[in-house]
Amino acid sequence: MKRRLLLLGMLAAPAAWAQPVSGKLRRVGVLAPSTAEKEAVTLKPFFDRMAELGWVEGRTVAYDRAYADDQHGRLASLAEALVVRAPEVIFAPPATAAVAASRATRSIPIAFGSVTDPVSAGLVSSLARPTGNVTGISNYGDSLAPKRLEILLELVRKVRRIGLIADPSDPTTRADQAALAPVLAASGLSLAVALVAGPQDVEQSLESLASKRIDALLTTTSLTFNLREQVMAFAARQRWPVVGHRPPMADAGALAAYASSLAEQLRRSADVIDKLLKGRKPSEIPIEQPTMFDMVINLKAARTLGIKVPQSVMLRATRVIE
Predict the structure, then answer these.
(1) Does residue 285 come out as left (phi exceeding 0), alpha (psi in the -120 to 50 range) or beta?
(2) Which of 84, 112, 214, 248 could form a disulfide with 98 if both were Cys (CB 3.0 to 4.6 A apart)?
């Protein structure tokens, strides 16, 4: 009878399963590229899922958070300092953070949550057998930039020169440029790239694109995502149609956005961290690829730009902003 009551008590309190025998809090480092305020919103699906799995902050887990405040050049030193504090596991969601963490330690397990082509980024040796101390959730096996260009060309017919705003420290920049090159060549289009390393670069970099008389803008990388309000304010003044790489880009004013579901990826990242905390090695956890994709159409932006969105595009949208 006592044993049955004990089992029932365990079922009623899943957080107890995650509590280490010693009673000490398990320690998870979180290396994030933006500010505490922005990351609280972006990473909420991750922390919510961790709590669902029994990892309740202050009760079963302690998070050691390190924020780069949108200055990706700080990630290397932040990662090194985080490693010195010796968390059991490090969660480094985007490519820039994951690369910084992997360079800072070869022993502490690392999980990423949003990386395009982690093999080319040098994070893992293969998706099926990652080896080393890194694993996680990939955005997609290949760059989605050509798909965003396809959507742009469906929405805006008279396009000759495309602008791309990106982060020089992010491997995603290289992946997207390489993927776009053959598509642009086949379409007779040209590409102008503006590199942004922090908030201080946004205006000057976008001014350089304006001077090159681009017809439309594509976005990429986590830094552009975190600086989306600045980027979209400038684009609105220039009346540039923008196709973003995350749905919140459309909420900020982009004409459209196409991406794998970031919220779902971050939730699944929590499952990876859960496995690592329970003793699984990173090399035993294959890299997962997304199964859910979001395509957002911003009709408000379309009306402002005088663009009529084809029904064929509307039918494919998972969300429409009126």
Answers:
(1) beta
(2) 112
Angle at 206 between CA 222 and CA 302, to 5 degrees: 80
78 neighbors 36 (Cβ within 8 angstroms)? no
**216 CB neighbour count, 10 Å cutoff:** 23
| Parallel, antiparallel or unpaired: strands 293-298 and 256-260 | antiparallel
Q: Which two tokens stand for residue 60?
A: 């079963």
Structure tokens at 203: 């205006």
DSSP-derived pairing of the beta strands 110-115 and 216-219:
unpaired
Chain centroid offset of residue 79 CA: 18
pLDDT tens for each residue of 221-267: 999 999 999 999 999 999 999 999 999 999 999 999 999 999 999 99
> Do 192 and 315 sit in the same domain of this protein?
yes
Instruction: Kindly provide the b/e burial profile for residues 97-114, where b requires at least 16 CB atoms within 10 angstroms of the residue's own CB.
Output: bbbbbbebbeebbbbbbb
Q: In CATH, what number is assigned to the domain containing residue 129?
A: 3.40.50.2300
